[in-house]
Amino acid sequence: MMQGMPTAAWFAVGLGTNLPFDSLEGPALLQQAMGSIQQQSFSILSRSGFWRSPAWPDPNEPAYTNAVCVCLADQRRAEETLQALQQVEQAYGRQRARRWGARTLDLDLLDFHGLRVAHGALHLPHPRMSERAFVLAPLAEAAPWWRHPESGRSAQDLLAALGECAIVRLHGC
Ligand code: PH2
Ligand code: MG
Ligand code: MG
User: Fold this and answer.
1) What are the average pLDDT values for consecutive 10-residue runs of the chain, which has 173 residues?
2) Is 106 a catalytic residue?
3) Which residue, 18, 83, 163, 173, shows the most beta carbons closer than 10 Å to its own?
């Protein structure tokens, strides 16, 4: 697994699920979703393990499984890359009913090679990532070299600043 920063252009994707789709759920669903990202002709350079946490902001919703993967960017711009990820979400029956509502598959473009942009659906780096342990814990694992494009802080450092968080790494899957 890659530990150093990639030498070519890269982007980081946060994956999340808290609803089954087509008899898949949790880690198996996210594993398959990474295969679907590769089928969009993206190479995965590194990936985290799977992490489980209560749904935020409503812990009565089903718990989430999250992961992060770092991919090699190609000639596609950030907008096109986001659209390709949204196509994968669609293929997993993603419905956009409520903000923060339960979902079969969420693919968030967290960071596109340090780009800073807010335009239409594209907000980079992902505006809430620094407050979310379910993003930071897998990101720290997949990309220990990563630094927040605005604050310069590592995922591990941002995670420590959140204090105690109800998130666990799943083993054996
Ligand atoms: N995603 C959300 C809303 N709440 N909670 C957890 N634990 N993990 C998520 O990925 C998550 C969430 C909207 O994208
Ligand atoms: Mg999300
Ligand atoms: Mg999303």
Assistant:
1) 84 98 97 98 97 96 98 96 96 85 95 96 96 98 98 97 94 80
2) yes
3) 18
Residue identified by tokens 């992490």 is 51
**Among this protein's residues, is 94 annotated catalytic?**
yes
Among the bound ligands, the one closest to the CA of 96: 3
Which member of 103, 111, 132, 153 is catalytic? 103
* pLDDT for res 97: 76
**Selection from 76, 63, 2 nearest residue 37 by Cα:** 76
65 within 8 A of 16, measured Cβ to Cβ: yes
Largest CA distance in the chain: 43
Q: What is the pTM of this model?
A: 0.96
Nearest-angstrom CA–CA distance, 131 and 26: 23
22 among known catalytic residues: no
- Cβ contacts of 126 within 8 Å, gap of 6 or more: 14, 108, 109, 110, 111, 135
